[in-house]
Amino acid sequence: MQVDEFTTTLLEIHDKMTSTNKNEDIRLGLNRSEYMLDSETSSVLQIDYLIIISWPWLPCLLTMMNDKIF
């Protein structure tokens, strides 16, 4: 599986922990947050990831929004 360097490091830490500590049930949870701009209030709102997967074009808009804000 191809992942970014940060995720690769997390997976390596998880592998080391599971091989070192056999007495405890160790789990790795990776979560992410997505945001969208509310046009009525001009505020940034966190949205559920299940919503974001139905809008594949949204990351492009978020990138453009980020460029304008920052």
From TrEMBL:
Pfam families: GSH_synth_ATP. This is Glutathione synthetase chloroplastic. One of its GO terms (molecular function) is glutathione synthase activity. InterPro entries: Glutathione_synthase, Glutathione_synthase_a-hlx.
